[in-house]
Structure to design on (345 residues):
């Protein structure tokens, strides 16, 4: 048996980190940050939480390279989906065209 | 097959399918296949996250108004419930890997109970939205979208929708379409996950899984954690960011 077995204390640690992240994100929502920082803070905390789940609960840290490639490919295509859609919607009023 | 002799010792395992060389190759293939499926799931939910991001950018005031009506306490409790269920799921995989059946069964049962708890709390929230006429469109016959609007002069009523300046009822309805589409699809995934866990529980009680063969526990665990991650993003985006315009 060659698969990596993650010790229980790692799982417990990740669980506590995730709970802490949830508490932080709720607390941050009640503070009024300038500009768009509220969204940025909330998404940063969510991304960190998701990364911990992927790396440890989903064992990606100990998985083969092929799993990494598949996951990165998914995120890459998602980035394209967002980038191209927003580059359309956010630039529509840059030039005025008679409709 | 040249490698046949080297792997003969594990060929005796009753769960090894004939097209795999050995148990490790079979397990790796299963995990990889599950990840490919999860990519399609990422793209599926990604489309809805895109819709959310786009409409929130277009109608920030309406999204804040709609979001403020959601119950942060219930949302936060549900986040905790789901994270705890991810822990028990991870532990179920762990106890299967080291071959301890009793704690494995207990962890699977706990995960199932926590998943059902999440769905129960979600049902309470949906009922609150039903009471306040916030189910979008005409999804409920005879009860079309039409919340009571909070007026400045009136005493504060939590069943009334507080419209922020610049928000209209139609735009808030858009928020609730997206809210119900995203949390509804998430809840559907939870229901499917609960079904899969029931299947795992039955097979676990029959002693089907051991350190050599536990792919079903591992891949259903991957699915469960993925659904957890979707909620990790849904909770702040839908419940918390409504407190702010941007």
């Amino acid at each position: 048996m060659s698969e990596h077995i993650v010790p229980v204390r790692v799982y417990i640690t990740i669980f506590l980190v995730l709970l802490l992240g949830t508490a932080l994100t709720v607390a941050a929502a009640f503070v009024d940050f300038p500009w768009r920082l509220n969204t940025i803070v909330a998404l940063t905390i969510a991304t960190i939480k998701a990364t911990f789940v992927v790396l440890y609960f989903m064992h990606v840290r100990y998985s083969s390279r092929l799993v990494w490639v598949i996951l990165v490919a998914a995120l890459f295509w998602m980035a394209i989906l967002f980038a191209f859609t927003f580059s359309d919607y956010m630039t529509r009023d840059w030039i005025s065209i008679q409709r | 097959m040249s490698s046949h002799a080297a792997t003969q010792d594990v060929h005796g395992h009753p769960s090894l399918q004939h097209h795999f060389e050995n148990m490790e190759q079979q397990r790796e293939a299963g995990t990889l296949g599950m990840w490919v499926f999860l990519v399609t799931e990422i793209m599926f939910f990604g489309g809805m996250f895109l819709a959310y991001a786009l409409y929130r950018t277009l109608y920030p005031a309406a999204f804040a108004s709609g979001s403020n009506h959601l119950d942060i306490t219930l949302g936060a409790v549900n986040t905790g419930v789901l994270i705890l269920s991810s822990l028990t799921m991870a532990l179920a995989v762990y106890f299967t890997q080291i071959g301890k059946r009793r704690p494995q069964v207990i962890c699977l049962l706990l995960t199932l109970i926590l998943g059902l708890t999440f769905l129960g709390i979600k049902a309470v929230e949906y009922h609150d939205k039903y009471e306040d006429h916030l189910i979008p469109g005409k999804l409920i016959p005879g009860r079309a979208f039409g919340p009571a609007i909070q007026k400045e002069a009136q005493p504060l009523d939590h069943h009334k929708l507080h419209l922020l300046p610049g928000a209209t009822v139609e735009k808030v309805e858009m928020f609730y379409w997206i809210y119900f589409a995203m949390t509804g699809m998430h809840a559907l995934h939870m229901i499917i996950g609960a079904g899969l866990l029931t299947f795992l529980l039955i097979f676990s009680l029959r002693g089907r899984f051991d350190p050599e063969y536990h792919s079903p526990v591992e891949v259903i665990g991957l699915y469960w954690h993925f659904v957890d991650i979707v909620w990790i993003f849904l909770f702040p985006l839908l419940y918390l960011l409504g407190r702010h315009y941007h």
